[in-house]
Task: structure prediction
Amino acid sequence: MSALLGGWHVDFPHHDPEQMFALAVDIESYPRFIPWCQKARIRQRREHILDVDNVFGTGPLQARFQSTAELDPPHGLTITSADGPFRRFRLQWHFSPLGEGGCRVEAEYEMVLRSPLMHSLASMTLPPMEHKVVHNFKERVRQVYGR
Result:
């Protein structure tokens, strides 16, 4: 199975990298803007590492897995897992300053699922999910910071 790859970027001219990093590292709020994310609980905090318990799914289809978030404030956040449904999962957030205090937020992901059926389903649903994540993230920015 080849890896599923994707990503997106959005410019936020009124918000700086520190603000955007703070939203992305608020992993326990992911159920508010990541589709199918039902729960994300930080199990352990170390200096620049978070160990997270996750539940994703819809209806009776649920996947539980653990992930690790490596923090590089305020430049980036990398979330990885090889647990539960994933052979390999990597989500990288990048926060780059724009002129006059703004920020470009970029997110790139790579995943390989253990189940060929789930992998095929994911390949069909990920593109529209990206649009929903971007929309929901923009709304989360408005809720927390305004504009």
